[in-house]
Amino acid sequence: MTANNESPKIMYMVIIAGRKQKDRLLTALSGKGCRIIHTFYGKGTANPDHSLDSIMHEENKVLITFLVSGEESETIFNMLLTDFNFAEKDTGIAYVIPVDKMSY
């Protein structure tokens, strides 16, 4: 939160999901006011033989990062829950980091 208890105007958002969802996620994010979108590929380290509720078992991952307004970040979280089923096991995880200051 900022000093006057307003939500930060800019958020750095991170989404980690199965690589198969990359194109669909990027298409959905394109109309949401996201800026400076980066896509990274990774390989998960979870052992599929261990059944942990909080770990995605698909080995190939995509990590998508971008800047977005605080208001739009809530819209994106809701989209991930409803359209991408992020509330269910093995679908994805997303979080935001508030950006108080930026220089470029």
How would you sum up this structure, described in words?
The protein is α+β, with helices and mostly antiparallel strands. It has a domain at 16-47 and 58-93. It is 22% helix and 35% strand. The chain has a four-stranded antiparallel sheet. The radius of gyration is 15 Å and the shape is globular.
Question: Based on DSSP secondary structure assignment, what is the total number of beta strands?
Answer: 4
Largest sheet: 4 strands, antiparallel
Shape: globular
Radius of gyration: 15 Å
Q: Quick check: average pLDDT?
A: 85
Secondary structure: helix percent: 10-25%
Strand share of the residues? 25-35%
- Helix-strand sequence: EHEEHE
Give the neighbour order of strands across the main sheet.
2-3-1-4
Task: Calculate the terminal CA-CA distance, rounded to whole Å.
Answer: 22 Å
Q: Helix/strand/pairing class, anyone?
A: alpha+beta
Low-confidence stretches: none
- Annotation field: number of helices: 2
